[in-house]
Amino acid sequence: MAGMFRELRSEVEEAVETALSDLGLPTDDLGVEEPPEDVPAVLASSVAFRLAGEVGAPPPKVAVDIAEEIDATPYDYLESAEPQGPYVNFFVSDAYYAETVAAGRDADYGSLPDTGKDVVVEHTSANPTGPVHVGRARNPILGDSIARLLDFAGNDVERHYYVNDAGRQVAVFTWAYETFEESDLPDPERDRSDYDLVRYYRRGNAYLEDADEEDAAAAEEEIAEIMQGLEAGEEETYERVAVVVDQVLGGMRQSLERLPAEFDEFVKETSFIRGGEADDVVDRLQASEYAVYEDDAWQLDLSPFGFEKNLVFLRSDGTTLYTTRDLAHHEWKFENYDEAVTVLGEDHKLQAEQLDAALEILGNDTSDLRQTFYSWVNLPEGGMSTREGTGVDLDDLLDESVARAREEVEERLDSRIRDDELDEDDIDRIARQVGIGAVRYDIVSKQPTKGITFEWERALDFEAQSAPYVQYVHARCRGILNEAESAGIEAETEISLLDTDAERDLLRVIARFPAVIEEAAEDLEPHAVATYVREFAETFNRFYRECSVLNAEDDDVAAARLGLVEASRHTVANALSVLGIEAPKSM
RNA sequence: GGGCGUGUGGCCUAGCGGAUCAGGGCGAGGGGUUCCUAACCCCUCGAUCGCGGGUUCGAAUCCCGCCACGCCCGCCA
User: Fold this and answer.
1) In which element (H, E) is residue A266 found?
2) Alpha carbon distance A387, A201 (integer Å)
3) What string of DSSP letters covers A160-173?
4) Among candidates A393, A388, A391, which has minimal Cα distance to A205?
5) pLDDT per residue over A371-381, tens digit each?
6) How far is the CA of A60 from the C1' of B46 (A)?
7) Distance, first Cα to last Cα, chain A
8) How many Å from the CA of A89 to C1' of B20?
9) Which residue has its C-alpha nearest to nucleotide B3's C1'?
10) By Cβ atoms counted within 10 A, which residue in A243, A420, A546, A573 is the most buried?
11) Nearest in space to A568 (alpha carbons), one of A502, A477, A482
12) A15-54, pLDDT tens digit by residue?
């Protein structure tokens, strides 16, 4: 049940290995790969190139010998091996296609068997200083998609947001919130706690920058007091900070939920100070052979790990640093989960590597920790900053996208052929699904390491190679399924009647889905699923044009095609679900 | 200065050692709807895969050098 393609791949690998060893040839590299689109085989091998020297014959001759030696009879899905030039091509049996339709007709098609692993995915973890802006939006979208992907690949997944509530920023924020008067501030951009409070944060930062030395120093003293209070474990200080943090975070959560990105737990940095775990980390690091005491501060000499500079883990005033607390945080993850995944901006790369080294020093096995990085989303004119108030708020982007999607829906209403009468709720629903989906797909479909420059027109393009393009395929499937039901057509798993190129192409693409999930999950690359689902949609649209279900030659063909549509619907719905994009029942 | 990342047609993007077409999309031009929703499909235009070397039977993909851009090199997070 783990996917026909994956089983076929195993069969082919075994068959090639057997044939090679029977021929007395090395089996270390089987060269099994996917052939180009125009080759009708499902898999191919390029071993002949590598073995040509050894055999003393040209690759095409070697390919013939290997193909002849391969015995397909013991296998269910491998039908035959045929040489073509220097390649050996592998063709599949009807059972391969039949099992694909049968598997695809299960609603959870594509999901992988339970791994039994508990995995924690930490993502976003943006400082609670103000509304989420587009520059940060890649993190929740990527992180949430990775969590969904790992879940679909058979893992038990928890999503965590690590709340930085112990740093200087929140101290500044708390001081500003307690110091400035609302009447001195501009109106909030939205009636929500994060938009409300960020005004104090911005005012506070501006004050620190512009105030004369004496006033600034006085403010700094108050800020330092808050930081010291946190470190000393003063309950009262925690409460003061929490008033600010919890309110801002509450607002930010509402933005994130629109994506949607939801969390199982918000883990506060201060909890590792209060619980004593951070102090414990300090004690153990001080006792390690890498610890040095320089300039009144405790540091780690990480040169054996390839780092030029020392990593300070305890300030000269005796307080801990972000990384120190994060060490305690990660040890806690190791205790409670089998694997930990963290989604971070590229600016945290060095810090993440140092964290890794320090965790090793503390005796942890960091092979269970995987960090994945992404580049920032910038505006054409530069970066975005919460503190300075520059950038596009995520809420504004989503609102704009939904509004444009609504315009599209309304425009298309007139030329609509289908007589299913979309009501006001449908229009709302479609605008939201398409609008949010478009933003999400635009972000999740690109390699995370590539930088993105945010441009309205490009982000909100609903044409081909976008979420709506794929979502439309789902709506088409639902449309066919609904009509078929009223027409009394029952789906069948009947491969012999699905023999056109369009049908076979679609079957082959559907068969690959579980293998795509497997590989994407292994590499933490949801964009591979986005690429796949786009290819799937292209293939489906060709099938849709050429092979009518409701107007098929006869009832048997209609029933067989309906089975294929069912499998298609599950494939596209599940792929979209992994990407966190809704699958509309109509558009 | 050092480290990491990115560089694919006018623009965006996939591929990251294998099939003398490097896939898609946007854009530009031309077609398609008495037939399951045209947010669709088909055709045409357009790429020395940043530059220069090297390894290999084979390189967009690996190695070296260079150039451009981004990020990092705090007792900030």
Assistant:
1) strand A265-268
2) 7
3) EEEE--SSHHHHHH
4) A388
5) 999 998 887 77
6) 36
7) 32
8) 20
9) A350
10) A573
11) A477
12) 999 999 999 898 888 999 999 888 889 999 999 998 988 8
Q: What residue is closest to B57 (Cα–C1')?
A: A49
How many residues are recorded in chain A?
A: 587
Q: Are A126 and A385 in contact (CB under 8 A)?
A: no
**Domain boundary residue among A353, A378, A403?**
A378
Neighbours of A405 (CB within 10 A): 25
Map residue A292 onto helix, strand or coil: strand
Q: Output the distance from A242 CA to B20 C1' rounded to whole Å.
A: 67
What is d(CA A364, CA A245) in angstroms, rounded to the nearest whole number? 31
Does A551 have pLDDT greater than 80?
yes
Strand B, nucleotides < 7 Å from a protein CB: these are 2-7, 12-16, 18-19, 21, 23-27, 33, 35-42, 57-58, 70-77
Pairing relation of β-strands A452-453 and A32-33?
A: unpaired
Residue A503 sits in the same domain as residue A529: yes
CATH for A498 = 1.10.730.10
A500 lies in a domain? Answer: yes
Give the distance, in angstroms, between residue A442 CA and nucleotide B28 C1'.
24
Can you give the distance from the CA of residue A59 to the C1' of nucleotide B19 in angstroms? 12
Three-state secondary structure call for residue A554: coil
A289 and A194 in a single domain? The answer is yes
| pLDDT one-digit tens code per residue, A255-303 | 999 999 999 999 999 999 999 999 999 999 999 999 999 999 999 999 9
**Are residues A180 and A324 located together in one domain of the fold?**
yes
Nearest-nucleotide field for A530 (CA, C1'): B14
Distance A35 CA to B18 C1' (A): 10
3-class secondary-structure state, position A298: strand
Nearest nucleotide, CA A565 to C1': B36
What range does the domain containing A71 cover?
4-92
* Separation CA A401–CA A347 (nearest Å): 29
Alpha carbons within 13 angstroms on the beta-carbon side of residue A531 total 11
Tens-place pLDDT, residues A103-118: 999 999 999 999 999 9
Judge if A355 and A407 occupy the same domain.
no
Q: State the amino acid at position A189 in one-letter form.
A: E
Are A249 and A144 contained in the same domain? yes
Nearest residue to B14, CA vs C1'?
A531
A250 occurs within a structural domain: yes
Rounded, the Å distance between the CA of A470 and C1' of B67 is: 40
Mean pLDDT, chain A, whole residue set: 92
